[in-house]
């Protein structure tokens, strides 16, 4: 049974940082491309970042997070990360990790397993 479990969310002040983790069990991290999504109340789900596990190593970051968020992976721990810096008041949301297909338009949401999400709150 494939499971993805996020952790690392919480409350941070504007301009602060958080490092989210996504532990994959029941599958290898490199079985599929991997990505992060977020959804705020009343807003559409947004693909934030993703990476391809193909040899091309393609990576995608949404324009809204470029230069501030960094997606990474540790295959020895079967874990993916999202380091978020300089968080802004408009970015509180539930952040989800998922198996995906990483494209130049962002991670595909309709591809694989998802985690349960972790809440990120930004105080001003």
Strand and helix layout:
Layout: E1 3-7, E2 10-13, E3 18-25, E4 33-39, E5 46-51, E6 59-61, E7 69-74, E8 79-84, E9 93-100, E10 102-103, E11 106-107, E12 118-123
Parallel strand pairs: 2-12
Antiparallel strand pairs: 1-3, 3-8, 4-5, 4-9, 5-6, 7-8, 9-12, 10-11
Task: Describe this protein's structure.
- The chain is an all-beta fold and 124 residues long.
- It is 0% helix and 51% strand.
- The strands form three sheets. It has a six-stranded mixed β-sheet with strand order 2-12-9-4-5-6, with no helix packed on it. A four-stranded antiparallel β-sheet has the order 1-3-8-7, with no helix packed on it.
- Strand 7 and strand 8 form a beta hairpin.
What is the 3D shape? Answer: globular
Helix content: under 10%
Major sheet: arrangement of strands: 2-12-9-4-5-6
Number of helices: 0
Mean pLDDT: 96
Structural class: mainly beta
> How would a crystallographer describe the biggest sheet?
6 strands, mixed
Please provide the ordered H/E string of secondary-structure elements. EEEEEEEEEEEE
- Distance from first to last alpha carbon: 40 Å
Proportion in β-strands:
over 45%
Radius of gyration of CA atoms, rounded to a whole number: 13 Å
What is the strand tally? 12
* Poorly predicted runs of 5 or more residues: none
Could you name the key traits of this structure?
single chain, 124 residues, mainly beta, six-stranded mixed sheet, four-stranded antiparallel sheet, globular
